[in-house]
Automatic annotation (TrEMBL):
<feature type="domain" description="EAL">
    <location>
        <begin position="24"/>
        <end position="278"/>
    </location>
</feature>
<protein>
    <submittedName>
        <fullName>Diguanylate cyclase/phosphodiesterase with PAS/PAC and GAF sensor(S)</fullName>
    </submittedName>
</protein>
Amino acid sequence: QAKEMGRNNYQFYTPTMNAQTLRRFELENNLRRALDRKEFVIYYQPQVEIHTGKIVGVEALIRWQHPQRGMISPAEFIPMAEETGLIIPIGEWILRRACAQNKAWQDRGFSPMRVTVNLSARQFLQPHLPQYISNVLEDTGLGPQWLELEITESLAMKDVAFTEKTLIELRKMGITLAIDDFGTGYSSLNYLKRLPIDILKIDRSFIHDLNTESDDVAIISAIITLGHNLKMKVVAEGVETKEQLMFLRQQQCDLMQGYLFTKPLPVRELEQKYLSNNTKLFC
Ligand code: C2E
Ligand code: MG
Ligand code: MG
Ligand code: MG
């Protein structure tokens, strides 16, 4: 692009590039330092069975507790971590941490539940991922049935042969597999049918617009039917209102996650509010 702009723009263009390179370099350093200084924290958001109100799992969601800037959301740094490759050590930390945490909860006598970990593209594409995960389960002592892994729909459909091979390996290990943000990518239903997926998570944008956009009613009910026909459980993400929940219940959606039940919580708060008294009825 610099060439197209011509020689005259050379001096104008260089400083911009340097500033960008510098910013990236700084951010990369900051992320690396954050990992060393243990500035990442995991919040957990319950996944609740709609017809019983029981918590069956928690999704691990990373935050960056920045010493100056406060709590930074994953949307702000995961893309950069992905680009720089730092997502690999960060992702390994999350996986290990979440598994160890779930094992600790079980050891303390809380009702067993799954912990769900999001896998980024780079992480998922690592050739030895299943072996790595197997090591983490062995090291932490967590049973594979208590771990769930999420990949997004668009990642799952990127290289379907690779996805299929990897998911089959993970499934053989006894891990639960979910497709995240379903409905925002372009699934080949033929491939979806072949993949050993246990759970479809309806993207929260569909739930959000439920009240205003009647198209979403049709889309949600189609996704639920599709999931059930493929023997999958369906999770609705981002449920915020009773009306949304009532609709989902009526559509026989299996599970929900959302602010209506609770926002993602730090460990201590989750334990106090929900784990010591698992069965919690709502609505
Ligand atoms: P996601 O995996 O789809 O996670 C769901 C997001 O929806 C979370 O945002 C959660 O806080 C938010 N959410 C849950 N219920 C509601 C609700 O009722 N209303 C609204 N408005 N939002 C709700 P969060 O924690 O900011 O994470 C955003 C995204 O960042 C995640 O989307 C995921 O793609 C990524 N992410 C988070 N943690 C990790 C991680 O440990 N590893 C990787 N690779 N990605 C992560
Ligand atoms: Mg997720
Ligand atoms: Mg999602
Ligand atoms: Mg998402």
